[in-house]
Design a protein that fits this description.
Layout lengths: L9 E9 L3 E9 L13 H19 L5 E5 L4 E3 L4 H4 L2 H4 L2 H16 L5 E5 L2 E3 L1 H6 L4 E4 L4 E4 L13 H9 L1 H10 L7 E2 H7 L4 E2 L3 H18 L24 H10 L2 E2 L2 E2 H10 L4 H10 L6 H15 L3 H16 L15 E4 L3 H14 L3 E4 L3 H20 L5 H10 E4 L10 E4 L5 H14 L5 E4 L6 H5 L8 E6 L8 E6 L5 H13 L3 E6 L6 H17 L4 H6 L10 H8 L1 H15 L7 H8 L18 H7 L13 H21 L6 H12 L9 H6 L2 H5 L14
Parallel strand pairs: 2-3, 3-5, 4-6, 5-7, 6-8, 7-10, 13-14, 13-16, 14-15, 16-17, 17-18, 19-20
Antiparallel strand pairs: 1-2, 8-9, 11-12, 18-19
This protein binds nicotinamide-adenine-dinucleotide.
Nicotinamide-adenine-dinucleotide (NAD) binds next to helix 15 and helix 18.
Length: 719
């Protein structure tokens, strides 16, 4: 039975008279009555309403009753696109075929409309919503509008209601290819102003009246310009030209060039092919459709689009991508303050090193209260303060703070070596060296200067928060906030409670994360928390094969099919070998020999070596020869027993499933979704794998080692 409930979009139809355009049929998309805060989306009945209303207006145009059609939306939304909750329900997903047919029939029909069509984007137009706007001859957008994009390839599908076929005719091949293939991978959506630059919209207009003025002027201009163009259809409004390039034309060549343009160290074509081998076929399918456009009829191109969409909907990648999208949507920092959080009027940071200065900057920006950093070393204090102020200047330079606010915030930061200056802080977070005794002494001295209810927060990445709080007078006010480096960019903070942490402390910690506009994932106080524990299960498997003598290049490439953003050797270099060696040993001591302590890694760390050679023009930096030397590659008698390639990947899948099962069983994390959210945001695990647990279900690892799938049948249905 279907669990999907559609919130049906309404289309309000009115006529208005315009001196130049004549009678304009105005279609306004609106959410269901009484649900004005909900965005208008496209489910099966909504698409029927939308295509039906546009079809009715076209009937009137054919009958000579109207001179133009205008579409717009209400509130902050034009049309927010397909209703994603529909895809999560396999019964409802069956509607995609008929919905696509309805959209395509209309895309073909509008080409022969005898009157010009306007879409005024008063707000968000995403995916299917933007594809409806592509039916228009002219698009205007209200200044300041955000959320214009076709994000489908990031959801494991592709713009399938005419977008893949028609977008290039509006914005040109380069912009279309970027919008369809690359923007979704970067979470990029256009603003009205950017859309104007790319040609997605023709003019900015604050409201429909102003939009109609722009429309009337453009309609007249198009009629003048279009004399030499191929018309879109016989008897169609003559300002509209054929949307697809003919074969072997300069336009066709431009499209091919756009598909072969550079994407980092590879081309867009090789990049999408690589994504396909990593289980994400949508971008490659979209690229294939784009390259077949020249010389095709619109009907042929739409038929291919429909076939590709049907194939992708319900694929492993799309179901896992939709799961990730939903996790990210629900996990987003909320609007309402966390209940029970205490007010903070001044906060402190112990340390002014790498993490401390970055955290101080984020606290100052997010909380807008005085922030005091305290280090033992005067020079480090001064450097840390300059670093924090630099972060604020960069935030302003990116347009995320106005100059005045940036100046005030920079002035609210200070740095000192004097412990007494932390007095009066309602919260102090420590980011001093990762040594338990140092952390304990810092908390002890802080208890001496702070009020009894001030929060003591640690940014430790591997030490026990409980141990840190053990000898304190008020251990209930201790909590962990594990920030990731670089702090400004990394969206995740692990929030660590001990058995003694009280509710106000936890609520306040969660509120701090919310005010910093970051995602909070809660973890109990257990070694490595969530992200590092699982990352080191992965890295431990890799290092174990290396220690057993396997070929470094083969080992490094073994996990490619999983689709991580970088190979393990690159990750090790990024983490830093000393840190990796230390954390690996801590985890092994505390969690047992599921975690591998690697003599090879210790040797590499001691030599201050790197796993990879620096390289700008290769997708994966090559392994450094030092690795083979330090690990004694080839020195084992029976290398056939050492897992590499698929065998290593399977071993790592099983390791992850086992570890996640243990974490859930012991209450380190309460819900499996939190594991995925943490891995996506904290370690860049692939969204098209759903983070990790949908993938572990899909490949059977959870069934092999964790007693069954993590998500029931949801990700194993298609077998
Ligand atoms: N570097 C990372 O990527 C990263 C990521 C997440 C968490 N962490 C954690 O953050 C913490 C700090 O790491 P970092 O890389 O910023 O180290 P860092 O060495 O850059 O900074 C530590 C600073 O603490 C100062 N310090 C030492 N004793 C002090 C005391 N008693 N009072 C005040 N200051 C004192 C030192 O002078 C130094 O400036 C560690 O617990 C680490 O595990 C680091």
């Amino acid at each position: 039975m279907s669990s999907y409930t559609e919130h049906v979009t309404r289309v309000l139809a009115t006529d208005l008279e315009h001196p130049a355009l004549g009678t304009v049929a105005v279609l306004t998309f609106a959410p269901p009555e009484g649900q004005e805060r909900r965005p208008a989306t496209l489910g099966p009945r909504s698409i029927e309403a939308v295509t039906g209303a546009i079809g009715d207006a076209l009937d009137r145009a054919d009958a000579g009753e109207i001179g133009a059609i205008a579409m717009t939306g209400t509130g902050k939304v034009f049309l927010a696109g397909a209703d994603l909750s529909m895809f999560a329900d396999p019964a409802a997903a069956q509607h995609v075929g008929p919905m696509t047919r309805a959209a395509h029939e209309l895309q073909v029909r509008v080409l022969s409309s005898p009157v010009p069509i306007l879409a005024h984007l008063n707000g968000v137009a995403l995916g299917g919503g933007l594809e409806v706007a592509l039916m228009a001859d002219v698009r205007t957008a209200a200044p300041g509008v955000r959320g214009l994009a076709v994000p489908e390839t990031g959801l494991g599908i592709l713009p399938g209601w005419g977008g893949t076929t028609l977008l290039q005719s509006v914005v040109g091949p380069e912009n279309a290819v970027r919008m369809i293939l690359e923007d979704p991978a970067r979470d990029r959506q256009l603003s009205a102003e950017q859309a104007l630059d790319s040609g997605l919209v023709d003019a900015l207009a604050p409201d429909l009246d102003a939009a109609l003025e722009e429309f009337a002027a453009l309609v007249a201009a198009r009629l003048d310009q279009n004399a030499d163009e191929r018309p879109a259809a016989d008897d169609a409004w003559p300002g509209r030209s054929a949307p697809l390039p003919a074969a072997d034309t300069p336009e066709a060549e431009e499209l091919r060039d756009a598909l072969d343009a550079a994407h980092g160290a590879e081309t867009r074509r090789t990049w999408t092919a690589r994504l396909e081998t990593q289980g994400a076929p949508a971008a490659a399918r979209a690229l294939d459709l784009l390259q077949k456009l020249p010389g095709s009829t619109v009907t042929e191109a739409l038929a291919r689009e429909s076939e590709a969409l049907t194939e992708l909907v319900g694929s492993d990648a799309s179901s896992a991508s939709l799961y990730s999208a939903e996790l990210l949507r629900r996990g987003k920092p909320g609007r309402a303050p966390v209940e029970g959080a205490r007010e903070l009027q001044k906060v402190g940071v112990a340390g002014a090193g790498l993490m401390a200065s970055q955290i101080a900057a984020q606290l100052a920006i997010g909380l807008r209260v005085p922030v005091v950093m305290r280090d033992l070393d005067e020079d480090i204090a001064a450097t840390g303060l300059a670093g924090a102020r630099d972060v604020i200047a960069q935030t302003a330079a990116h347009g995320r703070l106005d100059e005045e606010a940036a100046t005030t915030i920079a002035a609210s930061l200070s740095a000192t070596t004097d412990l007494a200056e932390l007095a009066g802080c309602d919260l102090v977070i420590e980011a001093v060296p990762e040594v338990l005794e140092i952390k304990r002494s810092v908390f002890a001295e802080l208890e001496g200067v702070l009020d009894a209810d001030a929060l003591l927060v640690t940014n430790t990445s591997s030490l026990s928060v409980t141990e840190m709080a053990r000898d304190l007078d008020h251990p209930q006010r201790v909590v962990g906030l594990h920030f990731f480096n670089p702090v400004a960019k990394m969206p995740l903070v692990e929030v660590i409670h001990t058995e003694k942490t009280d509710e106000t402390t936890l609520a306040t910690a969660l509120e701090v994360v919310r005010r910093l506009r970051k995602f909070a994932v809660r973890s109990a106080d257990a070694p490595g928390f969530i992200v590092n524990r699982l990352l080191f299960r992965v890295l431990g498997g890799v290092l174990a094969s290396l220690d057993a003598g396997a070929d470094p290049d083969e080992v490094d490439a073994s996990l490619d099919a999983l689709g991580m953003p970088m190979r393990p050797f690159t990750l090790l270099d990024l983490v830093g070998l000393e840190v990796a060696d230390h954390v690996g040993q801590v985890l092994r001591e505390q969690l047992g020999d599921r975690f591998h302590a690697s003599p090879g890694l210790s040797a590499m760390a001691e030599r201050k070596a790197r796993f990879t050679e620096r390289s700008k023009n290769s997708v994966h930096p090559p392994a450094s020869p030092t690795v083979a030397e330090a690990f004694g590659a080839g020195g084992t008698e029976d290398l056939s027993q050492v897992p590499v390639g698929d065998a290593l990947l399977e071993k790592i899948q099983d390791g992850l499933a086992e570890e996640i099962g243990l974490m859930l069983g012991s209450g380190v994390v309460e819900q499996v979704e939190q594991v995925d959210l943490a891995l996506i945001l904290g370690a860049g695990f692939p969204r098209h794998r759903g983070g990790i647990t949908p993938y572990l279900d899909q490949v059977g690892a959870s069934q092999r080692v964790a007693g069954g799938p993590f998500h029931g049948e949801r990700f194993t249905r298609q077998g």
